[in-house]
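Sanity check

After download, print the first record. It should look like this:
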Amino acid sequence: MRRFFTAYGMLAVLLALCLFFAGGTYHQEAPTGREGGEALADRILARSPRPSGVAVVISPGGNSADFAAALEERLTKASIPLSARITGDPPDAREALAALAQAGKTPTVIATTPECRDWAVWNALRTQFPAYANTEVIAAEPHGRSTFLATSNLRNIADQIAVIAILAVGMTMVIITGGIDLSVGSLIALSAVATAWMIRAAGGVHASSFALLGASLAAIALSGAVGAFSGAMITGFRIPPFIATLAMMQVASGLAFIVTQGQSIYEVPASFTWLGRGAGLLSLPNAVVLMIVIYVLAHFLMARAKIGRHIYAVGGNALAARLSGVHTGRTLLFVYIISGLMAGIGGVITASQLKAGAPTYGVMYELYAIAAVVVGGTSLSGGEGYIFGTLIGAFIIAVIRNGMNLMNVEPYTQKVVLGLVILGAVLLDMLKRNRMRRAER
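Expected structure tokens:
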């Protein structure tokens, strides 16, 4: 249990943040659309005696038509007479309801949407037509709900963090070895541009599914090759990872601009958005499903596979690992290839989400990925970290950004908060390491 909380203690922080933003975005809200129509129908059916006639009044636009359809469907099944459905502004409603009164078909209940409930026309009708004196205007009652906990918002959080979380898988492995990879943001742009460019060359909007798959795999392989080059420079020529990947960040960004001449590539078919915008298993976005699969595989690789033990060994003490028979060069090359491949996958997802390839994609993504890794508990000194801890860190960052947006926190303040969160995570790591050193003495 102690080991679990040491590895995944940030899970408690994530849950605390969710509770905070759930409370901060709690408000009273009347249901709309079909939900609102069904709620109002239940309220009408609960009345005693039941109304002898119901007029449905809605304003044009929005989801008012769905509201009226659900309400009328439920009332019809219960054999409640419907006097009319009136769609329009207050003058339209007054004219139609006046016609009902003159025809002797005055409804006993006017069912409407929350935004129409306070129209002044209702009192004017009661003054002009005595038949409306006992007619009641009712709408669905508001109830409390948290915007943060809405299913659509939670799905949106997962969808938004998918690319950064996938990037963070490779970044976790790199940082555990004691390195860093600053090229992943630019590799997202290069991968997205390469994918869109190859799709355009293979037929553009008329490209086949085989062409889409081939272009995507080729772009991912290209990013993996760039990662392999960075790893070769680091292992073969002892170039510091910071310098090597900084250089490749510039190279990848420059190549993306050269390929596109600084323009975006939009000639891709609508089916290309399946990965970035589509949903499948349990109504989860396909990008999120892919993210989960990648994390499960990465967890087993790091926790169960031989290469995973080698990665931890190299990060803990490279000399001791080499003397123990670990091929440190191959291990480092492997993690940089994985980091490049993850960036390639992120670029394909981004291109699919935006249905285009542009050299401006991925700006600052490398910093968000590093932040997710650090917040998730991986030590920048190397040798310590957990894949699922990184996933928790990615969601912490996503939840903070999303929650602050919902609470209307200005963007500049958001940057300050995120910066302090990252600084706090690094500070906790340093304090923990200092405590461990004192204990060893």
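If your output differs, re-run the checksum step. Summary of this record's structure: The mean pLDDT is 92.
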